[in-house]
Amino acid sequence: MKHSKDPFEAAIEEEQEESPPESPAGGGDDEGRLEIEQTPEESERDVGVRRQPKKFKSSVAVAEGKNKDEDEEEEEENMEAELTKYPTTADPAKMAKMQVILSQFTEDQMSRYESFRRSAFQKGNMRKLLQGVTGSQKISMPVIIVNCGIAKMFVGELVETARVVMGERNDSGPIRPCHIRESYRRLKLEGKVPKRSVPRLFR
Amino acid sequence: MSNTAAAAAASSSKSKAAGSSQAPEKRKPLFQKELQHMMYGFGDEQNPLPETVALVEDIVVEYVTDLTHKAQEIGTKRGRLLVDDFLYLIRKDLPKLNRCRELLAMQEELKQARKAFDVDEEKITSLD
């Protein structure tokens, strides 16, 4: 895997050469709302880029009008996937930036990015879990959606911190449970994991 | 002799089973396939180790459970469990909060879109 130049850095440098950035640079803002036109790539490509998904919160606006039916059915299955018909807040500057970045991806990076965008927790399973936890039969849709989103971001934090841990230990290869445990411990220290008032017994 | 031995073995295994069903719940893997893709997307290898995936799943289930318990505690004061309870719990974590807002806004839009679509369909059918 080549780690020649980070495509984000390359794209941002390119942009900064052309014009001063009107909006805060990608690294600076928390609310990076980006719309991109995402069409599923034809082939699976392998990606190896480190990114911060927290910074790049992207909701996707696909070109209007086409394939309404398909999307409305698909919408039920994968909310978090790339297809929304209607532009939420179309920010052309950020869209353009995103397009520049995407066009420079290697095959590796594209496939990884695709997995990042498309993966999501299944709402049915999440609903079952929530019903088991709350004991109530009716869990409203927004609750499920929010939980899926929060859980996905939490996985992201875990995996990224685990990679950081691996870097510190100069390990390589797939992530091992010891890295995840260390990453979980660190997240707990940061306060990102809700603490139980009563410690969990008999797991 | 063999009968009593078998009976003893059966009863001991039964009691063991009863004991294990009371205390720790068996977690059938809920999210394994999606988790593999997700971990790849966030930086792991294309095929993450199965024990890693299992551990991450356990952690995520515990996280969602704890979060939901806390939200319920807040929600019972009000009545039902609402989305706002979760949003309140997430308030310190800006990226998550913004992402949730985005998701909810998207859901609203899709709802509107679907309503508009149904209305259009009715118009078309009524014209016929």
From TrEMBL, chain A:
Alphabetical GO biological process terms: RNA polymerase II preinitiation complex assembly
One GO location term (cellular component): transcription factor TFIID complex
UniProt-recorded Gene Ontology molecular function terms: protein heterodimerization activity
UniProt biased composition (Acidic residues): 11-20, 70-80
Alphabetized Gene3D superfamilies for the sequence: Histone, subunit A (1.10.20.10)
Pfam families, alphabetized: TAFII28
Entry's family note: Belongs to the TAF11 family.
Subcellular location field: Nucleus
Keyword Plastid (UniProt): no
Annotated ranges, domain TAFII28-like protein: 101-186
The protein's role, per its UniProt record: TAFs are components of the transcription factor IID (TFIID) complex that is essential for mediating regulation of RNA polymerase transcription.
Listed name of the protein: TAFII28-like protein domain-containing protein
Main location (coarse class): nucleus
Listed InterPro entries: Histone-fold, TAF11-like, TAFII28_dom
Signal sequence region: none
Keywords: Activator, Nucleus, Transcription, Transcription regulation
Sequence segments annotated as region (Disordered): 1-82
KW Transit peptide (keyword) present: no
From TrEMBL, chain B:
A Pfam family reported for this protein in Swiss-Prot or TrEMBL: TFIID-18kDa
Keywords, alphabetical: Nucleus, Transcription, Transcription regulation
Chain positions covered by the region annotation Disordered: 1-30
GO BP annotation list: transcription by RNA polymerase II
UniProt xrefs under SUPFAM superfamilies: Histone-fold (SSF47113)
The family this protein is said to belong to: Belongs to the TAF13 family.
Protein name: Transcription initiation factor TFIID subunit 13
Biased composition (Low complexity): 1-23
Molecular functions per Gene Ontology: protein heterodimerization activity
One cellular-component annotation, GO: nucleus
Cell compartments where the protein resides: Nucleus
Encoding gene, per UniProt annotation: BnaA08g27210D
